[in-house]
Amino acid sequence: MEFDQIRILMAKYLQEQGIDTLCAYPDSSRVRRGGAAAVVSLRSCKGGPGGFQDYLGERFDETTGQWQELYGRQITITFGLDLYAPVKEGAEAIQTAFDRLAQALQREGPPGLKLLELSCGETQFNREMGLFQRPVEASCQGYLYAVAQEGGTFLDFIVRGETKL
Q1: Which end of the chain has the least Cβ crowding within 10 Å, N or C?
Q2: In degrees rounded to 5, what are phi and psi of residue 99?
Q3: What domains can you pick out in the chain, each with its CATH number?
C-alpha cells in the first residue's frame, strides 16, 4: 500500500466492518446519509527510526528469486474518524456508531496498522450542518519502508504494520 492511499485503506476497512464511511478529502459531493457515518481524514503523521540507519532487514522475493533490503521508519498516524448523524437518528446513533467503530478497530484494524489509541469528544448538535457530530481520533502504528534491489536501487515506499501474535 502506498502512503497516499492510507485514508482510503482505513475507510475501506471500516466499510467492510459495516460502518458507513467516506473520506473527508478531496471534497466530493456530500450525500446525506440515512444513518450515522464516519468521515476519515489524516490529522497527523510522525516518523521515527525503525532500525539502525533506517535498515529494517531483508526479505526474499519469490517472484524474482532475489533478496531485497528494507529501509524505513516507524510511523504513527492519527486519523480523524469523526461521526455524523442526521437529526431524525439523534445522538443515540452516534453512540451506536462509535461502539461499532471501537469494536472494529480493537479486533484487527486495517492491514498494516496497529491501533495504539482511540479517543472521542462529546456528541454535539451542529446547527449549521443540521447534524449531530462527535470528534473521534485513532492513532495507529506502522512502518513506512522502501525496498532496495541488489545494488541499492529503491523500488517504492510502502506502509506496513507489525504482525500480531
Answers
A1: C
A2: -60, -40
A3: 3-160 (3.30.2000.30)
Task: Please report the pLDDT score of residue 40 as a whole number.
Answer: 94
SS3 annotation, the chain: CCHHHHHHHHHHHHHHCCCCEEECCCCCCCCCCCCCEEEEEEEEEEEEECCHHHEEEEEEECCCCEEEEEEEEEEEEEEEEEEEEECCCHHHHHHHHHHHHHHHHHHCCCCCCEEEEEEECCCEEECCCCEEEECEEEEEEEEEEEEECCCCCEEEEEEECCCCC
Q: What is the pLDDT of residues 9-60, one digit of tens each?
A: 999 999 999 999 998 876 544 556 778 999 999 999 887 665 556 777 788 8
- Convert the pLDDT of each residue in 70-87 to its tens digit: 777 788 999 999 999 999
Name residues whose C-beta falls within 8 Å of residue 18's C-beta, 6 or more positions apart in sequence.
100, 104
CA distance to 38, 62, 131, 152, per residue, from 89 (Å): 14, 52, 9, 56
